[in-house]
Design goal:
This protein is mainly beta. The chain is built from 1 helix and 11 strands; from the N terminus they run H-E-E-E-E-E-E-E-E-E-E-E. The longest helix has 14 residues.
Amino acid sequence: MKRILFLMILLALSYSSFGQLTVFNYDAAGNQITVYVEISIATPSKMNPTPILQNNPIYKDVKYYPNPVNSELFMEWEIIDNNVLNNISIFNVQGVLIKEYKNLNTVNSYTLSFQEYSQGIYFVEFYYSNGEQKTFKIIKQ
């Protein structure tokens, strides 16, 4: 019964949208002895707090691949109602600005190099001319 309950909780957590990792430990008799819960949130200086385990939101006007990335991330976006992309920023999971690409208002695609970055989670932030921001979680392998 405990294992069924555990599987149901695990399944529910896998479909949840907040960044939480829960680990249960059992003794040899099958009794739960510890529960480990980890909630991770990144708070870059220019970003709203974002759970790092949350799936990326779906933006119909932006395409990017591959994710996870090894060396280069290709990004393409649509310009809608003259709302152009001003710049792209890359933050590490601690919220530190790693790289910034400026003056992108005349293009609709860009290739970001991830070669020099170590494995981990990064956030790519788009800044538009109307003040809108879009954030993408990228995994570097």
